[in-house]
Every structure is written in structure tokens, then in C-alpha cells.
Amino acid sequence: MRTLTRKGIVALGALLALGCNSLDVTNPNAPDASRALSDPDAVEAIAGGTLISFYNTYNGLQAVGPLTTQARSHTASWNNFNMNFYSSVDGDGTRNTRSWQNDPAAAGRTSIEWYWEGYYSVAATAMDVLVAIRNNNLVIGNAARTARAEAVAELMLGAALGQIALNYDKGYFIDENADLGALSYVHRSVLRDSAVAKLQSAAAIATANTFTVPDAWHGDGGDYTNVDIARLANTVAAMTLAYWPRTEAENASVNWAQVATFAAAGLTQDFVFVGDGCASICPMMQSWTNDIFGIRVHTRVANLLDPVTQATPYPDGGNAQPNSPDRRLGDGSFGTADMEGDYGTVARTANAGTDFAWSGYEAFFASRGQYHQSNIGHIRWDASGTQDLNSIYSGYGPVPLIMSAQNDLIHAEALARANTNLTLAATLINRTRVTRGGLSAATAGEGAASLLDKIMYENEIELLSQGASVFYVRRRATNGLLVGTPREMPVPAKELGVKNEALYTWGGSGAANSSPTP
Questions:
Q1: What is the helix (H) or strand (E) element at residue 418, kind and residue range?
Q2: pLDDT band for position 7 (50/70/90)?
Q3: Where are the domains of the chain?
Q4: Based on CB atoms within 10 Å of each CB, which residue in 106, 156, 197, 435 is the most buried?
């Protein structure tokens, strides 16, 4: 079992907790903030910092851990991050005792707080940059640098508000014109549309200017320009629309034509950050999911990869070494011969998978439920290939915030759901299905329903460990979550307490799985 001792993660949690507990609390440091926001170099650094803060929030296991294990995409019975409680299953096969624990006295409240505090910290910081540039007419060196800070701040404001819309029943809309003393909640649909508008504004600013993105803003993950910022904004806009639905009815009402338009102008390369051991940039989710004994791939997903050898639910005695037609799993071999005794793995062969590995060892305590067990681990981001402590295990190495494949699959889904240009949809699917998976090519002649099945498969396999947005939100929209699993989060108890509002929650038995307000 892993323990949360890395100083970077602890420091990050403390920083976010201080960032935005309630947006209408007077800030005693306001005079210092005003001075900082008149310093061009400081404002530029703050703008760049929003990218890193968003990345760290998006990958934070405090929220992602429960969501991805609730979705039965990953599995773990550790008590870390409340995963054991929220992902466990009652004796009747439901989660009827596992509503969101939205109470200031409940340990499980932290899973609800993480996104709220993290994303509103990003949004508030981005808002400060926009106040300095737009309201106070601050110039950061020259027009290009000023436009860069403005575009990134607008992008991160829209992205953060969009994530609140994806995960909560309601929230606050803020920007440089907001009266922070008179904020009121808006419905998640209003927040979604406002976020998309901000993202399109960011894309327009980036398109109208020419600049490069400093390496320090993403840990030297690549050479990014204004074009990439515009493309990232379009991809996030497509995600915000496509991933917003909580139900099949809402999924059917998505403007899929608009999603396709955004995605067509979206990412053509991965937008990569490089983890520095969680001193500043923390690929926290990947550091746990790519640890063979940290978090494993749920048997539901392992069975998709190899239904012959990977039974679900987990059988007595476990599942045998795979022989998957998908090259991302292959025969599940991994690492070196001297790892076999410690890890239960089989030394890497010519048929080893690129993304997944098999271990004959059970990772979790049997007393917590054997249904948590799985023999398949995710090792895609372990660049060492040996679980080296100086690699992803400890938060080092390149991991995308969003992959171009995610944009492709959103684009393909939009086309398939609109039943238009299925030839392009198949081409987009095959960029990972064939190129990385080595599977038979998707074709337009299969029809939209078959293409959607292949898209869902690629979502599960290709995009695994990329935040919680892909698998949790798509499974809630297609009725894939177990009975009793909540489909969104309430406003955290801490925020409700500051405003003297009644606590509320849902999920579990006898309560709605999401807000009763449509």
C-alpha cells in the first residue's frame, strides 16, 4: 500500500485549501494583492500558474480516485482519498449506503471539496489577471506578452468554470466584471454555456495574436504557440458540451453539431506537462494508476481488452496471463526477469503491451472485498518500464493534460450521434484503434451504432488515467454506473456553512442520484 508522504502533494493540498474556500470572504491580503496585480512580471507569472494549478486539480486523486473507481474503470480498496468507501459495493450489489458524505464532520467530504476549491482557485486567479489587463489596462512588456497572459487566463477561467459545470449541480459564475460581494448560484447548464463562451473568447484572442508559451508554464512539455492555445480552448469547449450530460435524455439533447465544430478546430497534438516529482507539477493520478500495487484496472475494463482470459467479476484464484488482440495489452508481460518475484509479473516479451501489464499477485486486502481485485495494471506512463522510483511512480515525467486522441474521439462521437460523415468518424477512431491497438479498422458501413461502440471502447482503453472526465461522465450519461452511485456533486458543506445554508446531498438509497432540479 502506498502512503501519501510526498511533500509536494501535501503542500499542494494546503495551497488549494487556502485558495478559495468561499468567494465572498474578505481577503485580508487585498493590499498586497493589489500591488502584485500592478506588477507586469508578477501578473504574467500568475497567468502561467493557472495552467499548472488546473493540471494539478484535474489530476488530483482526492476527487479523481473516487470518481474513477465508482465508474469501475480503475479499482482500489485503499482508504486513501476515500476510494474504499465510495467505490465499495453493498451486499445487494448496489451503492445504496454510499451517498456523497457532504457533512463537515464526515471524512468523505474532502472528495467533494477538491474540485470546488481547486477549480475556483484557478478561476479566481485567472480573474485577477483579467482584472489587471482589462480593467486596469496593465501592459506586460509588449502587446504579444499581454495577449498571451490574457488568452491563457481566459482559457483557464473557462476551463475551470466548465469543470464546475461538469461535476456540480450549481456554482458561481465569476469573471473580471463580477461583484464578489453579491454572488449567487447559477444552474450547471448556465455555467456550462458561460464557460464555453469564455473558451471561445480565449480561442479568438489566441488566434488574433502571435506568441509562444514559456516552458515553465507546463514544465517543458512541448513547443506550444498561440495556435496550440486556441486549439486547446476549442477542445475544452467540445469536452464541456459533450461531457456535461448526467442522463441519457440529456445526452440526446447535446448540440452534437456544435461539438463537432469545436473538435474540428481542436488539438492535433497532445498538450503535455512534465511532472517534477510533485514539487510544482503533479501527475498525481498517473503516479498511482501506473503503480502496479497502487490502483489497478477494473476487471470490467480488463474484460473488454481480453474477454477470454480476464473474467469479470474477479474470479476465485484470479485471472490468467492475457493474450489480447489489442496491442496495448498483448500478453501482459512487463519489466525484467528480476522483477518477477516482487511484482508477480512476467518479463517483457516481443508481445508485451504498450499500456497494460499483468501481475499474478493480488494487490488489495481480501477482507475488503475480492471484487476490488484485478490482475491488470496500467503502465502507459511508466517511461522507465520497470516501476523506477524516479519515474512516474514519484510524479516524474511527461503526462498530457489532454491528448489529441481525446479530441478525435469527441469529434467522432459527435459525428456518429448526429449520424453524419461516418467516414470521417471511422478515420478518427482508427487513429488509436488501428495505429495503437492493432485492431480491425472501423468503417462507415458499420453504421453509427457500431461506431459508437468502438468509440466507447477507445474511451475506456486509450484515455484511461486521463482525469475522471472521460469514463465517469460518459458512463453516467449512458446509465453505466451502479445503482446508488451519485451522478454529480453538491456544493461542499464547507461552502454551505460559510453562507449559513442547509446541507444537502444525494446518491445512495432513497435519494436521487443527482439534483432534483433539471
A1: helix 404-418
A2: very low
A3: 9-249+485-498, 404-462
A4: 156
